[in-house]
Design brief:
Length: about 130
């Protein structure tokens, strides 16, 4: 499963070995214990990757018929959009968790490409 955490610090993507049902149940239980509201609903999330990193990903996603799409944004970036579940304090919250499940191959590739893009971004900012 891929877990995308959206916060005021930006996006953090990680690969988690868990079922989506278990992860959602944990968040619901935590929200109940803390007395906080929690909205859980199907949705889509997106993030950008450099175009030169998306060639292999497009082939994997197409071959495996995952619930993900790649759209070219400009000459440098492509948007990777994923279907899954949004967990946040409210329906229209800017911060929250997005959970999606795909094949191991697709999840691993997306995670590795995102890590590479973060490393490249950190080098450019230095």
């Amino acid at each position: 499963m891929l877990r995308l955490t959206y916060s005021d610090l930006g996006l953090h993507l990680e690969r988690v070995v868990s079922s989506i049902e278990f992860a959602i149940a944990q968040r619901v239980a935590l929200a109940m214990r803390l007395g906080q509201p929690l909205s859980v609903e199907p949705g889509r999330a997106a993030f950008l990757l450099p175009i030169d990193q998306t060639a292999d990903l497009g082939g994997v996603l197409q071959a495996e018929s995952t619930a993900a799409t790649i759209t070219m944004v400009d000459r440098q970036f492509a948007e990777v959009a994923l279907s899954g579940h949004w967990l946040a304090a409210s329906h229209d919250a800017d911060a929250g968790l997005f959970l999606t499940i795909m094949s191991d191959r697709a999840e691993t590739l997306i995670y590795e490409l995102w890590q590479m893009s973060q490393s490249a971004s950190a080098v450019l900012q230095s």
